[in-house]
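Q&A log
Question type: sequence-to-structure
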Amino acid sequence: MLGVAVWIHRKIAGALVGYEPVSDSVLVVRLNAKPRNITLIQVHGPTTAAMDEEMEGFYQDLSQAVKQLPKRDMLLIMGDFNEKVDRREPSTMSSAVGLHGLRETNEAGEQLEDFCLEHEMALANTMFKQHPRRLYAWNFPDGITRNQIVYISIAQRWKTSLMNCRTYPGADCNTDHQLLVATVKVRWLKDKNNTAFRL
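Response status: OK
Response body:
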């Protein structure tokens, strides 16, 4: 049994428009902001050991959620996809995957990239050059193996609002996952100044 949730800082709690639990793996949250509302979709994807039907169901739910959103919203999709996506060389640059991810991929990662291409999303934590320890998002129990399976993606049209995306190893989160943070510049509805928010 999976589960997803989104915590919102009390300073922006008043900007919450609403939320919709699409499934136990997909949660949609909308926030009131300028120049457009912000939609956050929190996910927890099936592991690579899951049946094909489970993976297909996850992406069907996620695609349906995206298609039902207002096209003008700033869209960010984040969470544990349980998939690895290879970084790109300049000659094979993808609009969905940047130059600075880890040099690893798997079959499930191809599905994630296909989804991003179909819905014009970009994987934020492959867009910024970081030390590898700022890219690993999950530690295997053996204490040696580390993977980048957690992602924050942003709609292509809002990619210029993205200021940074990196993990914070050592953050006390009581989990085998590393804290992944993206910094995005946005204006809240009642805010006269541009404000960078983190998620």
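Response note: The chain has a mean pLDDT of 82.
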